[in-house]
Amino acid sequence: MLKRFVSHINTQHFPYTHSLLFELKKKKRKLKSRKPPQRDSAAIALRESRCKMADANMNNTETEHVSIDSEAAHVISSAVECHGDDDDVGALHDVVKGLPSHAVKDLLSVGVCTRCILRLFGIGGNIYSISVISPSILNSVIGEQRHDEEISSNSKELEFEEVLCALCLGILQFTYCDDKEIPVKKGNANDMAVAISELVKREGYQIDSFSLEVSVPPIILENEHSVRLYMKRKYGTETWFQGGPLSQSISAKDALKFSLAKPLETMLDCKSGISNFRIRLTFSHKASKVVQSVAVSKQGCKRIKTGTGSSVDSLDDSVAGDIKCSDLADATVERSFDGLQDNESSECFKFPLEKVNDACRLVLLCQRTPIYFGGRYLKYSRNVSQTRWIIDDERMGEASVEEIIGSNIQPLCQGDNYKFHAAGREDIDVRMLGSGRPFLVEVQNARRIPSEAFVREIETNINNLENKLVGVKNLKVVGIEGWTMMHEGEAEKQKQYAALVWISRPLEDVDLDSISSLKDMQILQGTPIRVLHRRSPLQREKIIHWMKIERIGGSSQYFLLHLCTQAGTYIKEFVHGDLGRTHPSIGSILGCRAEILQLDVTDVKMDCFLTE
Amino acid sequence: MKDHSVDDAINLEREPEQEQEQEQDSLHRILVPDVRDLPLTPPSAIESNFVSYFAPDFTKPGHDQYVYRHANGLCVIGLARTHVAFKDTSGITAVDFNVGKSDRSGIKVTGKRKKNAQHFESNTALCKVNTDDASYIVRCCVKGSLLEVNDRLIKQPGLLNSSADREGYIAIIMPKPADWLKVKGSLLGLEEYKKLREC
């Protein structure tokens, strides 16, 4: 009952609702139990052909005459390897029969491969996961012509197509050159998927999903455009064309992705989709140097329509040659071709397509997007810089916070390298104490993402290092939001310090009061001389929120100055005055000379990466 | 049989507070220095960060100037204590940057690349310092780009009298490395200068 309904739809109203067909067929298969394909397909073929012929007679269409005989049916079924794709293959047969045979023959003769033909007609979905689609599958459409040849040499049917497809340059035939320029003929999706999954495993990636990205040479789009134009010119008046099948073509990229996705999912044991792990296949080809394109602007199209000659601009070098093409380039080319679709008089296509002698070069790239570790660091040493600091091949300081933390994280993720980001910085001789300073370590291309327990272990390792130069708190894997958290409102953040100050006269009680009474005091700082060589000469207004003097027992001229200031304040210069270029300063407030011996950061008042 | 549960409860409540207090205490302990380690008089910011050079009798006898060179290459120029201008009893009464072809205090240097900075030779005039009786020209001593002049001296020329070696500096110059090497040989170090002037 369902079968008849389906075939009825096929020929009468919606010639090419292939995806719909496949969905219906899938349901049908699930309801019925599987029968051996050979018997079934022959029976189906006979029944279907009878239906079609009846319909054809009714509608008087000339081109949809499909001739099938039982021998041809056998040929079809034995031609395709039955590896469990049986049901798909069966359904494929059915749909293929609906294709216009002369058009298919035409395309085959021009050198277009089977998958390309199928995708041009918009046949979608599951068929791409069928591992082997040989040209003989189209025999059901082509009919008698091929029939004799196939019978005489059975082995030929099972061979992979020898000639590179003129349209997809071998990409959908799973034929390419590897990065050593050695030709590789996988011939089917499974084998190619094996090559990919082997690379993933060899690199040691631990993944729970993957996203497939494919980039193809733009000449393929040109070729498709040429083919479509040609088809339009030749078959534009025929009924099957009017339904607009060619406008539902599936791109070569999508076809390849459909083919590889399922087998890869099985081999990598995870789903394909949006993922932080990207598998990128970039195909490039030594296409002809002169790549023609058209003006994308509306004006250009209009000009062409009125027949004032084509406006052909040659594309940039970015499209010709071996250079890898990005999706963006494809989109640009696509857009320019869309604009031309209705144009009859375009000179910008070549037909028949050039013969392809070399396969495309494929570059396989696996990459994980960067992962981020957030936390707070403490610096206990006055001889450790925040980041690696090398002058004239000599390292300044004993070590750096960046290297200590990064070198303990990156190897455990098996990443390629790391970047260190922190919310502000302190001098090499200034300690970072208290709750610590927020930081992010960005690991590129990590092969594995450590678990929570593992991350805690990393933190313990760093804190238990023998030389106790650096400490880490609240280390954990964070998403990209860690970045915004760190840089949010940077200029408004307050920092708290403790400075060891000496003045040129004994400290008096009144001094403690005069300092404590100053709240939110504004100061003007000229760019400190010690950074003037690399920063702009500016006058910076900064706010000292509060200050407190703590006497040191046993000394009359030394004291601890606790202060809380606006982010970006130069504390050392605020104490000694920087030759008067920062005012007011501690010296100017107390009316004497003041020097700073030591500085410690005691609090970075920020909300991120705090202990939960 | 003592009931410890109440004590335990109180202790539990105190724990986070106690922890915080403990943290503050341990932080405080590392902040406070050991007084025995502290020098009676610590080195000044200039002594710690600059190397002092002197140009005695620069272009004229008695015109002693200093050049404080920072590790980053910048040079602070000023009048040395033994400069003849300080011999006048009145002390320095005015400073005028309008010398040579332009007013040095009017130049605006901007940006990391120090755009608009004027390139001066070592004997180019920076400013004129006046006492009641005389006026003296202060020169660059070092060939390079003039980054800034101490325009506070215009309103407070007395800074030269009170602290010519700090707040009374004259200008900041950025020499090219090659130019510095050339002039370095003609300058005196602190010890040599002291010996020369016996001060």
Short synopsis of the structure:
The complex is a heterodimer of chains A (612) and B (199). Chain A is an alpha+beta fold.
Please write out the topology.
The complex is a heterodimer of chains A (612) and B (199).
Chain A: H1 2-12, H2 18-31, H3 37-59, H4 70-79, H5 86-97, H6 101-110, H7 114-120, H8 139-142, H9 144-152, H10 154-158, E1 175-177, E2 183-185, H11 189-203, E3 209-215, H12 218-235, H13 239-242, H14 252-268, E4 271-272, E5 277-284, E6 292-294, H15 298-305, E7 312-314, H16 327-340, E8 361-368, E9 371-379, E10 384-385, E11 390-391, E12 394-395, E13 399-400, H17 401-413, E14 417-422, E15 431-444, H18 452-463, E16 470-478, H19 481-487, E17 494-503, H20 509-516, E18 521-526, E19 539-551, E20 558-566, H21 571-576, E21 582-583, H22 586-590, E22 594-605
Parallel strand pairs in A: 3-4, 3-5, 10-13, 15-22
Antiparallel strand pairs in A: 1-2, 5-8, 6-7, 9-15, 9-16, 11-12, 14-15, 17-20, 17-22, 18-19, 18-21, 19-20
Chain B: H1 5-31, H2 45-49, E1 50-55, E2 65-70, E3 75-79, E4 94-96, E5 98-99, E6 102-103, E7 118-120, E8 125-130, E9 135-139, E10 144-149, H3 152-155, H4 158-163, E11 171-174, H5 177-184, E12 188-189, H6 190-197
Antiparallel strand pairs in B: 1-2, 1-12, 2-3, 3-11, 4-8, 5-6, 7-10, 8-9, 10-11
